[in-house]
Amino acid sequence: MLKHIIIVASYGMLAVAVALVGSELVPALAPPVNWFAAGMVFLVGALAHESHVRVTQGATMAGQLHALRSENIGLRAQVTYLGGAMENLGANIGELNADGTDKSKQELDRVIAEVRVLQNLIEQLSAFRSMAGETPAPESSKAAGRDDSPAPAPGRAPAGENGAAYGLDEKEVLDIVREGLRKERVDLYLQPIVSLPQRKTRFYECFSRIRAENGTVIRPDQYIDLAKREGLMGAIDNMLLFRCVQLVRNAQSNNKNIGYFCNISANTLKDRKFFSDFVGFMAANQELARNLIFEFSQTDLDTHREEIGEYTARLGQLGFNFSLDRVEDLTKLNLEILAALGFRYIKIDARNFLDMPRDDDRPAMAEAAGEVALAPVGEADTVVGIDVALLKRTMDLHGIDLIVEKLEEEQNLIELLDYRIDYGQGYLFGEPRLSD
Fold first, then answer.
1. Span 135-187, pLDDT tens digits
2. Domain holding 400: CATH number?
3. Please, which residues have CB within 8 angstroms of residue 20's CB and are 6 or more apart in sequence?
């Protein structure tokens, strides 16, 4: 408003100046002509001012219309996606009414469970979209989502991600994330986990990637901080977990002898409504239990032990197994408790065996229910102050397999084979690649 007042005052003062000094500048002009000229100056200024205001308002309205159109497209995509699921539900109801068989009822339960999870996810995304422009307090690093993918070996680019999107501003990245989630542009990347020493692929670890409309890939490290700040991380983690399971279900039909590791983040652990629906979804897809292993990080296990114990009990009753990854402190491992919770795999970074300084005075680990430390032995047999051979025997005793991850060099593997490592993972055996 102040800007427009200043503009009006400016051409008003110019008109008054023309009326007052016109005769002095052009003596032949009579006073009435001066006032007429002043009026024309004011009129021209007013018309120019009005034209500027109309152009500005038109541009603003066009921007608002574009934003509304984009929101409408997103809502229509969600309705279409949910509508397809509802059509499948209707078809299953028809089949159930027709024959009433157990198989038909199982399919019906499966679709109902999937629709519930979808409804929950759509509500989350819609709620966060309506909060656009607001900036919630960022979540703590322990509660926020993480980039599951391993870092590439020096000089290597992640396979299948050469089209990664770089040079984008924050708004562009968040727009791609939101659109990717709404329009199912979430891709599954798989990295092999091989048996040792045979190097035969036994499992894959699943990584989710969000793809832009033009095909470029948004890596988690590009959007995690932004998503935390916008309060989107919970919805993203939930959606990626659900999509990961959907994609594994499709991949399983091609190879039923391969297992898939899928991470459950701290954000998902805190969302009881979503996870309750998710457990129902897994109960309706119980045939995945022989191929799907859910992963928790050691930090999340320490922070959310009560919730994880509850969830592993529910999923364990369905036949699912679990893996502990991102192990940062080997001395905190309690193998008896982990085995009781259904953990059948532990992933340990190769650097914990090879790079960290050795300390024979450091206690090895807490074994079983008590605090029985594995006694350190000679430095030649000890890694990071831990008797690896005894650690491995204790894991075998509790039915837990050891996976050494982030193996990059052949020499590293040679150093580890003497410890009877069960499985290896890293760029030495294969990079994360887009699932077929």
1. 333 333 333 334 445 455 444 444 444 455 667 888 888 888 888 877 878 88
2. 3.20.20.450
3. 34
